[in-house]
Amino acid sequence: MRIRITLVMLLLGAVGAGAARAHAFLDHASPLVGSTVATAPSEVALTFTQNLEAAFSSVQITDGKGVRVEQGKPQISGNTMRVGLKAAGPGRYQVHWHVLSVDTHKTEGNFSFTVSGP
Amino acid sequence: MSRFLAHACTFAIGLLLVSLPLSNAFAHCFVGARFFPATLVIDDPCVADEMSLPTVDWFPTPGTPHGSQVDISAEFDKRITEDLGFGISDVWSQIRTPGGPVVQGLGDLETTLQYQLLKDASHETAMLLGLIVDWGGTGNVNAGIGTPYSMLTPTYYFGQGLGGLPDDLEFARPLAITGQIGYQIPTTSYVLSQNLNIPQVLVYGASLQYSMPYLKSEVKDLQFPDFINHLIPIVEAQLFTPVTNNLGNPSTTTGTINPGVIYIGSTYQIGIEAIIPVNSASGSGVGVLGQLHFYLDDMFPNTLGQPLIGGTSTPSKTPL
User: Fold this and answer.
1) Is the C or the N end of chain B the one with fewer CB within 10 Å?
2) Which of residues 166-185 of B touch A (CB under 8 A)?
3) Which tens digits make up the pLDDT trace of B7-35?
4) Phi then psi dihedrals of residue B213, to 5 deg
């Protein structure tokens, strides 16, 4: 019985904790991860599964030649990070993000999207 | 202590655990963009604060006619420092043989000391060294579930994500391989009462896993339903090959292949796998294995999720 009670409490803890805290995974991005878009977007938006610490989260976008094309500092609100994009032509763009969730779990990732051009 | 007081104490401990403050902790098995889940049969290649509770399996035992075995086990792993970890586990087993008595009891207590050799984020590579000790005499020796002698198994673990594959193979980039190889050394070479040689055994295994979370966030977002994006299909295998001092014992390699799937939640994972014996000496039919696993560093990042020594309370900024 004692084991059962402790188990129930731990499970409740897991569910409760899971509702608000954990590592920040990339939930979705705009443009979509791996997608091809006709025209270059004016910004890239990344939405995570957890809220972010703005001071410790950043994003870098490079073009096919490795030149950085993000514009200004990323704007972070809750679980979303946005950064402007300099005028970008057709080609493949690499997004490298590095974030810290509000409970200080660090995660990072990379993805690309392609601008096909008119 | 009365039953009421005992239950009240247990409830209080449980309440304390779930109400601990949640802040300031670092990862379980994240290596760059790669997340290696806790595998069910072999171990993942990272020290971590985690708990498997419970792991349950059922499988038909070798022989004709065959019997069956049920195991229920628990494992708790804790980081001592950022790179050094300690684990403790035990298993309760029940073995049914046709026409024979049902035997059951605890197996030997198992402890594991592990050191993180490498976490290379850019190459998605992890390496780990460990020493597994099965403590003889701590299990039900009379039932044949525990052993009167201990066993030491120095073990090397690795994990390798395939995220670095070229674009032509982009849909293979969510693949990852993990594995371990250990050498099991018993503290005695002969059990007089059973007239039995105790061999030294090579213990080795591997997993091949395909991460749908990785596919979605690193390769291509195919807009699958959210449930699908939490799955990691996996095949594990674990094998045992007697190497020396095996006189009088079968010299066959035994083991299982375990295809299944792991669902990754934010603070837990649930895994289910089939148990397929590699030969008749390993089992006589397909069994099943399930596990509920908790990421303690996500559940209790300010307490249980911190290393005992050198836990970091303030993150350092890593410039891009």
Assistant:
1) N
2) 170
3) 444 444 443 333 333 333 334 799 999 99
4) -60, -40
